[in-house]
Amino acid sequence: MEKPPLPSDDNGSGLIGDQCQSQLLDTVEGASQGGASVDPSRPAWDSKLQYVLAQVGFSVGLGNVWRFPYLCHQNGGGAFLLLYVVLLVVVGVPLFFLELAAGQCIRQGSIGVWKHISPKLVGIGYSSCMVCFFVALYYNVIIAWSLFYLGNSFQYPLPWEQCPELSPNRTVKECTSSSPTSYFWFRKALDITDSIDETGQFNPIMTGCLLAAWALVCLAMIKGIKSSARVMYFSSVFPYFVLLCFLIRGLLLDGASEGLVYMFYPKVEIWGEMQVWRQAITQVFFALGLGYGSVIAYSSYNPLHNNCHRDALMVSAINFFTSVLASLVVFAILGFRAKEHRHGLCGQ
Q1: How far apart are alpha carbons 49 and 41 in whole angstroms?
Q2: Where are the domains of the chain?
């Protein structure tokens, strides 16, 4: 029996594309058995720029500026960087695209998306919300530390530059035996006790900083994407300005080139250690925010026909280059400190 001919699109009328789009619409608009229906009245981003800044602002954070340079330093520099790129392309970008596509097509948050796929999988959505909650708990503590240092940075001289004086000729002995930075961090900022059994005293300043951090989060979320989008214009762009300033200053330091050579020099033999692979793939998930449900939530405010392929590649590329930019800053300063330390030892 002769098969019917395939539809032709030689005249450029877009017949095949129209048929595929109509089939996609029918699939998306029809709820699965026992699943949730698509919400057509869901709010939307005012512009594509808002959406991109939201995704970049969520994925780019302490994992790029703080954690990635540390892992790169601990795991062979260039070897870890190359391994991270491979895992990002093979694992990270495809999973990131899947979350973008799921949120954009079903137009619901993490709980609604998994319930739409299957009611039996709704627990995954609730689990992702719990993960976000627990991450927010310790992230806001770090923000509180940052606010504490921001407030103290307006003093001159800086309180972590020199040991506090008990009298004109006496300083705190504990500070002189360690360093002013360590003393300020452990005794002024954290006010830690000698053991975990001791509760210590109430720290009103740090508590106020923590409340201020949570207040900023609430203000950014009080009106949903309308209020958070306005915050993104500053919170997503300003860190790059600061990093560029630090990079320019770091590259002008003596010994910065040695730090950059250490960063890009590949110690490929470290690939034989399973721990390096585990830390690299963990960093991929942590940096892109995979599994948190926030990527799904952000993309659910997109138009149905938004090009999420391009978004996945663009956000992943920005995320990676931010990690490299932060690492350049850190390793340039590490090279300067290492050379300064060597000169100090030679002088002694």
Answers
A1: 21
A2: 43-347
How is 27-77 classified by DSSP, letter by letter? HHHSPPTTSPPP-TT----SSHHHHHHHHHHHHSSHIIIIIHHHHHHHTTB
- Which two three-digit tokens encode residue 134? 């627990």
Does 203 count as an annotated binding residue?
no
140 is annotated as contributing to ligand binding:
no
Asked if residue 11 belongs to a known ligand binding site, the reply is no
CA distance 15 to 3: 20
57 is in an annotated binding site: yes
Q: Tokens 């910065």 appear where?
A: 256
> For residue 61, with 0-12 CB atoms within 10 Å meaning exposed, 13-18 middle and 19 or more buried, which class applies?
buried
Report which of 222, 200, 219 is spatially closest to residue 211, judged by C-alpha positions.
Answer: 219
Q: Could you count the other beta carbons within 10 Å of the beta carbon of residue 118?
A: 13
- Specify the length of the chain in residues: 348
> How far out from the chain centre does Cα 156 lie?
32
Global confidence as pTM: 0.78
Strands 170-171 and 165-167: antiparallel
| pLDDT for position 315 | 92
Per-residue pLDDT tens digits for 53-81: 888 888 887 778 888 988 988 887 888 89
Chain centroid offset of residue 141 CA: 16
